[in-house]
Design a protein that fits this description.
- This protein is mainly alpha-helical.
- It is built from 19 helices and 8 strands.
- A two-stranded antiparallel sheet has the order 1-4. A two-stranded antiparallel ribbon has the order 2-3.
- The chain is globular, with a radius of gyration of 30 Å.
- Keywords: Cell membrane, Electron transport, Heme, Iron, Membrane, Metal-binding, Respiratory chain, Translocase, Transmembrane, Transmembrane helix, Transport.
- It catalyses: a quinol + 2 Fe(III)-[cytochrome c](out) = a quinone + 2 Fe(II)-[cytochrome c](out) + 2 H(+)(out).
- This is Cytochrome bc1 complex cytochrome b subunit.
């Protein structure tokens, strides 16, 4: 019988494998397991939004003219309000993309909505990683990579937002120029280097265009590749549950299950962005007009991910300048524009190492934390979110004042107070709530769910019948680490000589106490056995007197305690 000739696809695959050795890598990747949980989709939303940004960005780059040369808009083109108006080539090409190029306005709006969704998904994904402890060893470097992607996303948003050269984006560049100049000693050099002379110069739009379409996307692509490679190398994290340990992954293989789901989800994300671009108008630059340094639009705000910087600038009092060594420090710009975001991003970027210093933990962690089981970390995360939201509201304080009929100065002073008090209050309340939820979990493990059925025992005592927890729920409530504050050696050694390194150990111990001094320990088998014996002693003389249904229910409720940790 004549052997069957291989198909074209098989021949192509064999050709590539014989020259690249790709089959082994594809086979290894295809066998990787990924757990199935909705929160893991946040990272995928960010990735798919970035793909949409690349596709729409290529279309826009073909028609956009990154030039600040002055021209007049043609008198025979839409919109009518811009006919004959003097403007830059960048603004003119933006209008032509919107009104003259087929599908141009849809591409512009899809690009803008995709950018907003991209930043929202990255932020939500990072906070999911933060609250669940997915940044712990061996993923500290992957956290730094993800954090860098967040910073690059901010840079991509700012450079793209500024390209149309309209009044709104021009005012944003003016603020960036002021922030740069507020930096001591180097500020004026940074501004001159960025704008090629006095603001606004003639080169900022071409430079932003190069950074927006070449430099930043290239870095994002490289870091996304590193990020995904580390996910494959380190295994995917998973939530606690029966059969799930730090040494395995319970989920679906990449091929065919996960790949099919991921492909379908990409088209869902693409479709949502397309619908938003088609029906939700955004960044209508023809309403603002070309950039002119004299007018400033009322009710103007940047995109949401930059709104916290705008809010910080609005909250800072204006009369805060000091002179040191002949240099004037404009604290009203330096503090909100450089110091506040610098502290915020430094804490976020260094968090895995801060938490590691508090625990001296050297083990690998592939099981995620429930946020309630790490109350201090959860409280810090909520405090950061609270500070961000307060600054975002402050960035729109003029709109709040006009829409609610309130005094602008009153709103500003209220937000100033809340900026300092709000995060502290949010941290305290969140930590108390987490500890209360942990106590409730202990009660559930020890006693089960309340059913509302009360039976009277022979001795007259009343006893409520509790429904025992199923193994999945019980596992989730008891499988977490009991982390205690660090214990250190005394200040003086056996010879009464001050111990070297005691001060550093003392600082680490204080940090550890901040994290773990207030904690609720998980239920131990001994505690569970003691609770079982207590219930059995109460009911041992009376269960036989109950009717058969009640006797079976009470017996099940009691015996469930015995094997709760089996």
């Amino acid at each position: 019988m004549k052997p069957r000739k291989p198909s074209k696809a098989a021949q192509t695959a064999d050709f590539l494998d014989s020259r690249t050795g790709a089959a082994k890598a594809v086979k290894e990747f295809a066998r990787k397991l990924f757990p199935d949980h909705w929160s893991f989709l946040l990272g995928e939303v960010a990735l798919y939004s970035f793909i949409v940004l690349v596709l729409t960005g290529v279309f826009l780059a073909i028609y956009f003219v990154p030039s600040m040369a002055e021209v007049h808009y043609p008198t025979d083109q839409l919109p009518a309000s811009m006919q004959g108006v003097e403007m830059s080539e960048a603004f003119k090409s933006t209008l032509e993309i919107s009104f003259e190029v087929h599908g141009g306005l849809l591409m512009r709006q899809m690009h803008h909505w995709g950018a907003l969704l991209f930043m929202a998904a990255i932020t939500a994904h990072m906070f999911r990683v933060f609250f669940t402890g997915a940044f712990r060893r061996p993923r500290e470097l992957n956290w730094v990579v993800g954090f860098t992607l967040l910073i690059l996303g901010l840079g991509a948003g700012f450079t793209g937002y500024s390209l149309p050269d309209d009044v709104l984006s021009g005012n944003g560049l003016r603020i960036a120029d002021g922030v740069a100049k507020s930096i001591p000693v180097l500020g004026s050099y940074i501004s001159y280097g960025l704008f090629g002379g006095e603001f606004p110069g003639k080169v900022i739009i071409p430079r932003l265009f190069t950074a927006h379409i070449l430099l930043i996307p290239g870095l994002i692509l490289a870091l996304v590749s590193v990020h995904l490679m580390m996910v494959v190398v380190h295994k995917h994290t998973q939530y606690p549950g029966p059969g799930r340990t730090n040494k395995n992954v319970v989920g679906f293989p990449v091929l065919p299950v996960y790949a099919a789901k991921a492909g379908g989800f990409f088209f869902i994300v693409f479709g949502v962005i397309a619908l938003m671009g088609a029906f939700l108008s955004i960044n209508n630059v023809w309403n603002y007009g070309p950039y002119d340094p004299s007018p400033v639009s009322a009710g103007a705000q940047p995109d949401w991910y930059m709104l916290f910087l705008e809010g910080a600038l609005r909250l800072m009092p204006g009369q805060t300048e000091i002179v040191i060594g002949g240099y004037t420090l404009s604290l009203n710009i330096l503090v909100p524009g450089v110091v506040v975001p610098g502290i915020l991003f430094t804490v976020l970027g260094a968090w895995p190492f801060i938490e590691k210093a508090a625990t001296k933990d050297t083990g690998e962690h592939h099981l995620l934390d429930r946020p309630r089981n790490v109350p201090t970390r959860t409280g810090v995360g909520v405090a950061i979110i609270t500070a961000f939201l307060i600054l975002a509201v402050a960035g729109s304080n003029d709109l709040v004042a006009t829409h609610l009929g309130l005094d602008l100065n009153f709103i500003t002073w209220v937000l100033r107070v809340f900026f300092f008090a709000g995060p502290v209050l949010a941290f305290y309340l969140t930590k108390r709530i987490c500890l209360a939820l942990q106590r409730r979990d202990r009660e559930l493990v020890l006693h089960g769910h309340e059913t509302g059925r009360v039976v009277q025992l022979e001795n007259g005592a009343m006893m409520e019948v509790h429904r025992p927890l199923d193994p999945y729920e019980r596992w989730k409530l008891v499988s977490f680490e009991d982390k205690a504050p660090l214990e250190i050696e005394p200040e003086l050694d056996a010879n009464g000589i001050p111990r070297k390194g005691y001060k550093a150990d003392r600082r680490r111990q204080r940090l550890s106490r901040f994290f773990y001094e207030d904690r609720i320990r998980p239920v131990t088998p001994a505690e569970l056995a003691a609770a079982h014996e207590e219930h059995a002693e109460i009911a041992s003389t009376s269960v036989a007197k109950l009717n058969p249904d009640e006797r079976d229910a009470v017996t099940r409720a009691l015996t469930s305690r015995e094997d709760a940790h089996t």
